[in-house]
Amino acid sequence: MRFVLIALSISALVACGDEASEPAGNNGNNGNNGANNGANNGANNGANNGANNGAEPLFGDPLPAQASADWSMFRRDPARTGFAPDAIVGDSVEEAWRIADFNSTSYGAAKGSPSVVDGVVFCGSDTGRFVAADAATGAILWEAQIEDTTQGIHGSPVIVGDYVHIGAYNGTVYTFDRASGERIWEYKEGFQIGSSPVVVPDWGVLYSSHERDENGGGHVLALDARSGEKLWQWNIRAHPHSSVAVDTSRQLLFVGDNLGIIHGWDAALGEKLWEVKLDPPTEEGGESDIKSTPTAIEKHGTVVFGAWSTRVHAMDAMTGQEVWSYQTEGRIMSSAAYAPERDAIYVGGFDKKLHA
Predict the structure, then answer these.
(1) CA pair distance 215, 158, nearest whole angstrom
(2) Structural contact between residues 9 and 94, judged by C-beta atoms closer than 8 angstroms
């Protein structure tokens, strides 16, 4: 099976104006020993593996923010809203260029979406090939090959300042020089990364969720975006296919896992605040896996996500208490998008419907 990276030219029609962490370098023990239904205070259930007892924010040096027109990371911003305030929609599309054989292994799947900054497209493939291409012409500006990964790159890159960061299915975060493609640093933790990293420019910190090993478990990491130094880490009991979302105004961080647990941390201190395990999706049991990436709705102080529970859930960002939920007719794998000017959430599911 062969896949290609394709750019489509869109004829413009209308502008959319509606608008248990561990100390660095130590593997530690799992700090999540038995999530309960409902909000679970992060102070309970055992070790806080490496919380910042000195109460100093675990941030790096600030990085320059990208222009508002850029799509510099998965779902555009740290809150993962998926909203493009100045986007153009059109009534027709045509192919502008393509990069052939971009995904070509037997596992072949174009899972990672591109990021676009200053007219350059950055994207990874299932072979571990990572390219930077001119968005107008498709001309490759530089490319890198990530070794020792049988299933390549599943996530989307994040580009902030002079750095391009991407996670690979060998458990490693790679950072490249944005202009030249030179590899600057790499950090390996666990077995695979199926998620997309996020960087908060004002904090100079990269957050990433990793799968621990083939038997389960996972890690949530905070790394200095410039150097790759680990600032803090928490270990969780299930694979996190979900990417990390950040409420920057409250300095909170969220991720879901395959046991149906949504987790909340103090991003500045690396302290677990709460976790909530969703009810089983059916009377026969099962897990309400959270494979979608949460969306932080800073206006309302909530975190919103869909799950295999067949529901869209909104939790209080500070406490984890459920604020509301919405029933659909099927599992939800996709991430919710939030349009702030409409104050509306959009999500699709296995019921073949788009809900607003």
Answers:
(1) 28
(2) yes
Instruction: Give residue 144's identity as a one-letter amino acid code.
Output: A
Single-letter residue type at 355: H
Q: Are 282 and 292 spatial neighbours (Cβ–Cβ below 8 Å)? A: no
Burial class (CB in 10 A: 0-12, 13-18, 19+), 214: exposed
Residues 211, 193 contacting (CB under 8 angstroms) = yes
Angle at 248 between CA 305 and CA 307, to 5 degrees: 10
pLDDT of the residue at 43: 37
Cβ(130)–Cβ(124) below 8 Å:
yes
Q: What is the pTM of this model?
A: 0.85
208 CA to centre of own chain: 7
In degrees, rounded to 5, the angle at the alpha carbon of residue 136 between the alpha carbons of residues 133 and 137 is: 65
Could you give the CA distance from residue 195 to residue 15 in angstroms, rounded to a whole number? 31
C-alpha 84/C-alpha 70 separation (Å) is 9
CA nearest 316: which of 9, 32, 123, 41?
41
3-state class of 186 per DSSP? strand
Show the tokens assigned to 329: 């007719």
In angstroms, rounded to a whole number, what is the distance separating the alpha carbons of residues 306 and 33?
A: 24
pLDDT score of 79 more than 90: yes
Residue with tokens 């102080």: 301
Q: Which residue has the tokens 């979302």?
A: 245
Given the structure tokens 């621990």, which residue do they identify?
212
**Least confident segment among 32-36, 50-54, 165-169, 306-310:** 32-36
**Per-residue pLDDT at 127:** 85
Token pair in block for residue 162: 């002079």
- How far, in whole angstroms, is CA 119 from its chain's centroid? 23
